[in-house]
Amino acid sequence: MTSTWIPGLRPDPDQPVSQRVSPPELVELAKREIGEPATWWASQTAQRIVTEVTTRFRENDSPAMVTGSEREGCEASLLTVLIGLHQGVPSVSRSGSATESVHQSVHRGVAINTVLQTVWACHAMAQDALLAEVEKVVPESRLVDEVRQLNRAMNGYITSYAGELIREYEEELALWKGRVPAEQLRIFTQLVAGVDPGNSAEEILGVRLTDAHLIASVWSRGAGHIPDKDGAVASFAHAAGETLGAVRTLVLPQDDVTEVWWSWKSTPPSDYSDRVRQATRPVWMNVALGVPDRGVRGVRASHRACLQAARVGRDSEVDTFWPFDDVRVVALLSTDPEAARTFTQTELAGLSGSDAKSVTLRETLRAWLQNGGSRTATAERLFIAVNTVSYRVAKAGELLGRPVGDRGVETLLALELAYYFPDFLD
What pTM was computed for the model? Predict the structure, then answer.
């Protein structure tokens, strides 16, 4: 028995959908079988369902598979069921719509139970949406039969789709944890070492080497066990990638550090450092960030900058986020730690105490020098009175035994080193 009510489905004109996201061959089949309006209804309904499911999970602090391709799976489900009902044939997943979503889930470290939870939530809402349409247009005399037919179609589809999804997940997980990451890491290592990685590099990486690139290093302090550390790093990397608008995010785990690689076809956002800083990450996670650059040379340059920032970050404990733009001078000055220690102690003699008063005076003088000697800017930055700035700067000069304007550059460099490496004053 076919369902004659389906071609009468109409999208809500007040909630336009810009495009359909299902495979083109499925969309064309749907347009021929159930008509253009019903096809748009499925697209619109899928968009609404995925938005509502994602919002609900976030409000409840529940994990969800949010890869950006959930709508495709939901839309394909609705179209396939509608086509099957209209033709009077069983509804089974035949579009391959699970593939991309599952692959992204594996790459982002999303567990299979989370994937299934999201799929079932979307399926339940899709079934409710179809039942609501049936109840609106089907005569009471046929309602029971149509509802039974719809439920059979939806159950048949979700059984087929879930099976496809699990198989895809297991296959991709085996591949992802095997050859592909090792090959990607090998190619990355060759690139940053200046070695030609071969013609298949872009295909294996999934990155166009002519694009713009940004490299980060992620590590934890201490040797304690961190549950699901790889998953946490992957979640941070992909969340930051979305915030950055990156077209590709690669996560490359090594023994004690994970390299993260973002790339763009065009220009990275100018506030890239702030966007990475604001991405949610656990307290144990330290991040060193290079600078964006283009092409193979850009990969190497960004990685070199990242290594310099990471060296500062590993030797200092004043922060957990280390953008090269913030620490480039300190990275250069601390290349020779013993020379840097001697320089710091010599320049800050008299102001090297570890007591709270000395620390406060160094902090105020550092801010004052960074702000070009502006008392107002320093006061605003430190949330103190202008007169307090004047007093502290004068006091710091007394302890240094020279006017603070003398040797201002040397004094500021020493204060930077003391800030990041307090043990240099010991």
Answer: 0.61
